[in-house]
Amino acid sequence: MATMTNSAQTQGVYVNVPMVDWSLFNELVRKFGWKAETREKLLERFAKSRPATPEISEEDIMNEVRAVRYAK
Fold this sequence. Notes:
Number of helices: 3
Strand content: 5-15%
Number of strands: 2
Structural class: mainly alpha
Helix content: 40-55%
Shape: elongated
């Protein structure tokens, strides 16, 4: 993913770049002051940002589903 970082507004863009052109693409990203990361790095960053313990348990979720489904 490449995004512009030196302007007030950014736009995320997904680009499929052949592996043979990856270094050239990274050079272009660096020259323009953008940020680039692979899908794997993006997912890794997202996973690390998630809380270690969920705010609600799976059992709590199922209890709410049952309460709505079987409400009279």
